[in-house]
Amino acid sequence: MFKKILVIIIVALTLSASVTGAERGFAIIVDQDTYTACKAEIENYRSVLESEGLSAVVVARVWSNPVQVRDVLYGMYLNKGLEGAVFIGQIPIPMIRDAQHFTSAFKMDQELFPFGSSSVPSDRFYDDFDLKFDYLGQDSVRKLFHYYSLRGDSPQRVSCDIYSGRIKPTRPGEEGYTQIREYFKKLLEQRGEINNLDVITSYTGEGSFSNSLTSWKEEGHTIREQFPNAFKNKNSIKFLLFNMYPYMKDIVSQELRREEMDLMIFHEHGMPFRQYLTATPLSKGIKENSSAARRLFRDALRKIDTKEERERAIAEWMGYYNIDSTWFVGADDKDWLTRDSLDDIRTGIVLEDIPHIKPNARVVIFDACYNADFREDSFIAGEYIFGGGKTLLTIGNSVNVLQDKSSADLMGMLGLGFRVGEWMQMTNILESHIIGDPTLRFTGETASRIDLKSKNPDYWLSLLKIESHPDIKGLSLYKLFNLNYKGMADLLLKTYRNSNEYTLRLQAFQLLQFYNQNKYAELLKISLYDPYEFIRRRSTLFMGRIGRDEFIPFIASVYLNDYLDERVHFNSMFCFDLLDMESLEKEVKNQLDQNKTFFDKDAVWSDFKDRMDSRKRIAAMSNDVTNREKSLKARLSAVRMLRNNTYHSKVDDYLKVLRDPQEDTSLRVALAEALGWFTLSYKRGEIVAACKKIAGHPGTDERLRSELIKTVNRLEVYMR
Question: What phi and psi values does residue 377 have, to the nearest 5 degrees?
């Protein structure tokens, strides 16, 4: 006991010395016109930050390009202890290319689609100073857009030096200035209030996590670990699901309007202009189900252009569903179109709804695609902070986003008094953004005694031992990881095995993938049976990503036994063609023969064979990579498949193509990029060695050399 108290005292003294001696800078970056129109409000904001201990500086200019902004920030980072920034008004938007591996899901073909849609708008350009880019030019129409290509010699992992947020008006001219002025007025009104984060609502929309109840139920457990004070009564914490009520929009709107609402979390599908809450409303009885089905047919017909195609579709549907022509009545009727449109609008929140809702949730998280796409003049995440309610900050994604990712890593920091930006700095990906004031924080005492800037491993090891909150322990692991603590792999494995907290095990699980593969393979065989569904889901996926045939019995078992875990089961099928398919087929047959619970084993086997045959057809398409009889277009298409399908057994053949100077240079460049997605592959060492050797040849094309270096750097991130 005495030893533990002594450790606490030492940590406290270390913290006191470091915090008092460090300058904490903050940059308020604003365009000159916005500053002129909103000067009083911006200066009041700066004064409040000063009173909170931040050395805030307003930098108002006519900004011509992102480099000007970045240079200011970097200078303040070196000389003024800059920890964060906010971009107010019309600040240049970096549009990032050749960095899709920094995103969770975005894989748009950069050759096929225009720059404006195939680039990722991202402020990581501003808050990660180590990243290196080549300037490609300014958009000819949308002058705020500046295009950059991630260089091959750049670090290939996002690691933010500062945090940032955007306050971009969704109206032009004076209307936009009014939005900004009103935003800062409500921000400063709430700034001095004591507000603990203890009222939370989480909403899961139609199609999110494949509508898996085993995925959905886990959030109650993780949020209890992260925000225990929210579990006071039925109104302080709520978990809502899309099928609880026919039109959940009404329920969700009521939640957003609650005066006391602190945090609203949306797991949903989205676009810049819409949140998709539900699909076809929940129907009960023959009449309601019939009406819902008729609406679906009307909607489907409206999407078909020609009369001939419509008639063909009607005939096919009548035969397949055994229905008559009355099921299609109203497809071209204006009254029906109006009625169907009104029904459709009740299934989601659109831009026009937000001023009527006047959301009060102080922080809103959109775990969705495109809701924070600040390329658009108006977008969901922006409208929320200007919507007339008390919402101060939103967090969302500027492009599409993966469902199988954790959007809540270390989120408990928000309830402990950390600034939202401080939390997001630990979890940023290329597309994730704060819309609003990133210095916002809830009341909490823990943050004041934690030195986030400490680079002393002993400090973080001490916190890992003495702190009780799982996200402070997880933060300690994250910091030790960034400090390259020598015993990290063993510490992560030990932490995973000894922890009872879902969130802490997840942090250990996710960090260990960057280390020695043998230890991670050892972990996956345990974590595949973790009580936390998300860890099971990722464990299954990563077995395929590694590709070792020793995982075959585990994948077979998951496929046969875990069919009620929809996302876990789906990931097992995604592994079929990443392992030895013949051995996997034998293993499934063997386990099925020994299984005593299946009622109809023949049906199970037939279903497995269908799924396996489907994956075999997909795998066969990848053979075009090495087939010189195929057209260049077909071979490039096959190469692009490798981003989602890391065929480990074919790596040697791919490397032959990569080495061959007789092959088309564009094919070799594309293949070098595709091999950069083999981050966990048991063949990645061979890929790295080959890429280094080819890049070292004097005659290697410079574009190819750059891509080879980038792939080496990408893979070595996972080879600590």
Answer: -60, -40
